[in-house]
User: Which sequence fits this backbone?
């Protein structure tokens, strides 16, 4: 009985850790990179994640790449005069010491341009990419693919 209970606890922990999928490079923690599924023939997709800076110096997400896309760009969406506008951020996004920056729909996000293949919900293995930081360097990540118009499972209520 105790062995079964320990197995259940270990399985639950492993499952929740796998769902959350986190990465680290230098003093930066990258939490749950995800993208929305795309319809067949789509040329672009959005990528989202959280970056927490546990260090004493600011760093900056300055670029990246994705095996499934020809180009990787960092963008920001904003409301101006009742109109939603999107613009590229060639200098990237700053992550100040002790702060968390969330790349999410309607805000900062990654744009995967010139898609080579559609992204499919719950795709396995997870589509791979890299994130490049000004100081911390490069880290490889896998993007969980959520439903079209969806949000990551861990954020749904």
Assistant:
């Amino acid at each position: 009985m105790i062995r079964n209970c320990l197995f259940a606890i270990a399985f639950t922990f492993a499952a929740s850790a796998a769902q959350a999928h986190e990465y680290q490079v230098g003093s930066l923690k990258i939490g749950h990179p995800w993208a929305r599924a795309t319809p067949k023939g789509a040329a672009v997709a959005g990528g989202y994640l959280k970056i927490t800076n546990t260090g004493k110096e600011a760093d900056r997400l300055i670029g990246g790449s994705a095996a499934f896309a020809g180009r990787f760009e960092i963008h920001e969406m904003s409301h101006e005069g009742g109109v939603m506008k999107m613009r590229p951020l060639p200098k990237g996004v700053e992550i100040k010491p002790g702060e968390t920056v969330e790349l999410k729909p309607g805000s900062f996000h990654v744009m995967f341009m010139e898609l080579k293949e559609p992204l499919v919900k719950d795709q396995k293995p997870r589509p791979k990419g890299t994130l490049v930081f000004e100081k911390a360097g490069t880290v490889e990540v896998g993007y969980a693919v959520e439903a079209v118009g969806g949000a990551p499972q861990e954020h749904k209520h």
The longest helix spans residues 2-20. Residues 21-150 form a domain with the Immunoglobulin-like fold (CATH 2.60.40.1890). The chain has one helix and twelve strands. Confidence is low (pLDDT under 50) at residues 1-18.
